Amino acid sequence: MIALQELAFGYRNQPPLATLSGCFHQGSLTAIIGANGTGKSTLLKTLAGLLPPLSGSFSLGRGCEDSAIGYLPQLSEFDRQFPINVRDLVLMGSLPHRGLLRSINANWHRKAADALDAVSMADFAERHIGVLSGGQLQRVLFARLMLTQAPIILLDEPFTGVDSHTTQALLQIIEQLHAEGRTILAVLHDLELVGQHFPNILHLTPDGPHWGEAQPILHSLRKADSDTPTLRIVT
């Protein structure tokens, strides 16, 4: 679904954070992990078209158009003061399908209501987004993502700043989208959660990427941690 050909990503006039070649296969579910500064979020922004590749290229699966990618940025990047209510924010997910000039018909309003119900936010439809907690806003953003109907979904730290109950609810939505055949990439930090829910991993490191099945990569990370000497204070 996403093929990377020597894709170097990063910021202009700076060395690339990494260079990748490989494929995210159609219907795959991949966690992108690594230390801060290794380029996890930057990779997603590049695939979403928000940053140009420094060199190399990537291509989407046959038949994919600009609306093929649904991108969820980090909560910290979202402007909560934007003058919009919950329902209208969710309806923005329909833009790739209807365009800016076409009105929002009853079908889209029904889909928005169903999406809000799926994330347990139907009672908040008329509220301004500025009054929502972090977890509530993330649920609403997932509802908007559902309306895009995109075959490729990019999630940048979707569980940061939300409670465990919301995390479990959002994981259920991810599993539902995955069951529908979507290709999903998620930047994550909780390796226990990764091991439980994500079958594939892209591990970005300063020494190069490790890409493959989750369990062998997680096993090697645990082994490396256990082999690291710890400081003992003797009194």
Beta-strand content bin? 15-25%
Question: Which outline best applies?
Answer: globular
Task: Flag low-confidence runs.
Answer: none
User: What's the number of helices?
Assistant: 8
Summarize the biggest pleated sheet. Answer: 6 strands, mixed
What's the β-strand tally? 9
Give helix and strand order, one letter per element, not per position.
EEEHEEHHHHEHEHEEH
Class from secondary-structure proportions: alpha/beta
Q: What percentage of residues falls in helices of 4 or more residues?
A: 25-40%
Distance between the termini: 58 Å
Average pLDDT rating: 90
Question: Would you give an account of this structure?
Answer:
The chain is an alpha/beta fold and 235 residues long. The protein has eight helices and nine strands. The strands form two sheets. Strands 5-6-7-3-8-9 form a six-stranded mixed beta sheet, with helices on both faces. It has a three-stranded antiparallel beta sheet with strand order 2-1-4, with helices on one face. Strand 8 and strand 9 (210-213) form a beta hairpin. Helix 4 crosses helix 5 (134-148) and helix 5 (134-148) packs parallel to helix 6 (164-179). The chain is globular. The chain starts with a strand and ends in an 8-residue tail after the last helix.
Helices, strands, pairings?
Elements: E1 2-9, E2 18-24, E3 29-34, H1 40-47, E4 55-60, E5 69-72, H2 86-91, H3 95-98, H4 106-118, H5 134-148, E6 152-156, H6 164-179, E7 183-187, H7 191-197, E8 200-204, E9 210-213, H8 214-227
Parallel strand pairs: 3-7, 3-8, 5-6, 6-7
Antiparallel strand pairs: 1-2, 1-4, 8-9
Helix pairs in contact: 4-5, 5-6
